[in-house]
Every structure is written in C-alpha cells, then in structure tokens.
Amino acid sequence: MTIQYLVYDIESIVDKQLLNRVLYQDKGLADQEAFSLYIKKIEEEKGNNFPNPAFHVPVCIAAIAVDKDFTIQKIGLLGEEKRTPGAIVKHFWDMYNRGSFILVDFNGRGYDLRLMELWAFRQGIPIHYKHFDKFGVRYRYSDDKHLDLHEVVTNNMSIRYQGGLNLLAKMLNKPGKMETNGAMVQDLHDQNKIDEIEDYCLGDALDTYFVFLRWKVVRGSLSLAQETDLVEKARERIKQHANETGQLKKYLERFGSWAPWE
Length: 262
Prior knowledge:
This protein is α/β, with parallel strands linked by helices. The protein is built from 10 helices and 5 strands; from the N terminus they run E-H-H-E-E-H-E-H-E-H-H-H-H-H-H.
C-alpha cells in the first residue's frame, strides 16, 4: 500500500505522577491531589482545564491512509493490538521513518506532532533525519511535507477562528463534535471507557480528512465535483469500517452532504 498522505488525530491524558514530581515534589501530595490542584490553578489563570502538553500521554492515534488521488485507502488505530502509549508511539514513528507521506493534521505543529516528538525523546526512539531538514516537516511555511490545517486556514495564525476543527467540519455538514469532546478524554480514560475515546478520535481524524479535501478545492487541486465524489467514496469506506469494527456508527448517523449557502 502506497500512502501519499497520513491524516491523523491524537487523544491524550495526563501523566499525573510526572506532573506531581515536576510541579509539587516537596508538597507531599498524592498524584490525584496534585492533578486536581493543577487543574484548579489553570482554570483560574487561563479559563480552561487543558494541561500543558508536556505532561500528556498519548492513549489513541487514529490514522487515515490517503492515496495520491485523495481516496481513503485505510482507516484505523495505531498501536497494533496492545495500543499502550509505548506501542502507539512506536507504531507512529516506525510508519513515519519508513514512509515518505505528507502528514496532515489540525494544530499538529502546536500539539500532536510536538507530543509525538516528546514521546520519541521519552521512549528513546530515533526519528529519521529528514524530519529535521531545514525545510522539512518542522518548517512552518511549507505544506509539501506537513500540512497543518489549523495554520493554513488561519494564514499561519494571523487570525483565530472560534470553533476550530469543529467549526470547519460543521461548515461542510460533517458531524464535528458530538457527545464527546477533548476535555472529557481524561475522565473517560479514568473510567476505562477506551472505546468511546477511540470512536471520538476516529471521528476527529475523519473531520480532518474532509477539511483537508475542501482545502484542496480552495487551493485548486480538486474541483467541487471531484470532492463530492471523494466524500461519497469516503462514506462507503466508513460504512465498511463500521460494519467490521462497530466504530463510527454515530458519526455515520450525523454524516451530511455539503451544499453551498444561498
């Protein structure tokens, strides 16, 4: 299978023990106490409860393999059968080091890819030298190796759109955020509801794919007719995945067709 684009999304939780050791080492707190104290602090200071990515642990990576004609070849979860953080990270970098595909994500430069690099550091995983080329994946002003849709849509963050990926997906009449959102992942994981996290992650990856297609229309790489055809093919691929795995059924229920605003 030849992959031209790898569209992916990551869900993560907090390493409470690491957070406690780094921020509250001399306080004599239990890990959960330290985590709760930290969350309260950032809610008061920043108005959100999203911990710094340095403390995050990847628990799910959904990936969509896309061919050069923009058709979906495969939808899946990284990590093979174990899907532990270590297995997930190793699978990602093994694929990346062997492949020559373009990474496609939403805010990947600010979060997803940075988290993967930090975990390569933590796990002692080598990253192919091409990753660090002057105009390689880490270079901001090129999309021929890494396409961060958050950056290209906002013109390299010159403006911030309220709603993020959810906004863009719903503009295209795709599900976007449903019952689950990123702020719920920690609690879902603590309750061992891994299936819900994986389903949510797959939905975000698919939303990213559909935003990616529309961006290619805007850039002149696809016509609207071609995009429409690709979206219908994707719907059939999602149905197949849902029948085989039981995942993405709610996503299909809310899957709509785009029409221009009149």
